[in-house]
Amino acid sequence: ETGVTQTPRHLVMGMTNKKSLKCEQHLGHNAMYWYKQSAKKPLELMFVYSLEERVENNSVPSRFSPECPNSSHLFLHLHTLQPEDSALYLCASSQGTGRVETQYFGPGTRLLVL
Amino acid sequence: QQQVKQSPQSLIVQKGGISIINCAYENTAFDYFPWYQQFPGKGPALLIAIRPDVSEKKEGRFTISFNKSAKQFSLHIMDSQPGDSATYFCAASRASNTGKLIFGQGTTLQVKP
């Protein structure tokens, strides 16, 4: 595997379900990100982890819970989601969190909340 | 202040033509402006980026033009090809932001053969 991988690629869940999204980066980076991509809206940064510590939480509802057990893995735990949370969730990584560091994105998980 | 406004929302160009996508920002503290390209089923990938100390940056058929006084920057794709059909996002960030890119709404480009 190369680059940034995400699983699952598609997920359908009910509002009472609990599920987790997984991201793995194979680039040796030390920063990881979660973004939400909704149709006709800008990509929204959700969380930033640097050296496994959360350094940014962009006012995300508590029904989204990130976890970064090591610099290669990032999870997004989901519980009691709402239909408006349906979107493409993208994971990214970068060498550092400086503004000129290129962020490398995974293919995303397409989430549908019923 | 934190927004980046991108236009047009969609663009259709004939093969060989020039594609132009524009972005505008308000926050003068922004000092790094990347463009990302996203193909269907893929995540965005960095295409080209510019710092405000230069007015233009060219990489192959892709050029960023930057107008600091107008707080605008644009992506020009010369000799557009069907393989350029994708969604393009401009973005901006500033030194004090921890990896925080502010993205535009995206432009879906279709290049017709």
* Strand portion of chain B: over 45%
Shape of chain B: globular
Provide mean pLDDT of chain A, rounded.
Answer: 91
Number of strands of chain A: 11
User: Based on the structure, what is the oligomeric state of the protein chains?
Assistant: heterodimer
Number of helices of chain B: 0
Protein structure class of chain A: mainly beta
Give the overall shape of chain A.
globular
Largest sheet of chain A: 7 strands, mixed
How many DSSP helices of chain A? 0
| Strands of chain B, total number | 11
Portion in helices of chain B:
under 10%
Helix content of chain A: under 10%
Radius of gyration of chain A: 13 Å
Could you write a compact summary of the structure shown?
Chain A has no helices and 11 strands.
Describe what you observe in this structure.
The complex is a heterodimer of chains A (114) and B (113). Chain A is built from no helices and eleven strands. Chain A is an all-beta fold and 114 residues long. In chain A, a hairpin with a 6-residue loop joins strand 4 and strand 5. Chain B is mostly beta strands and 113 residues long. In chain B, the strands form two sheets. In chain B, strands 2, 4, 5, 9, 10 and 11 form a six-stranded mixed sheet that branches. In chain B, strands 1-3-8-7-6 form a five-stranded antiparallel sheet, with no helix packed on it. The model of chain B has no long low-confidence stretch (mean pLDDT 93). At the A-B interface, strand 5, strand 9 and strand 10 of A face strand 5 and strand 10 of B.
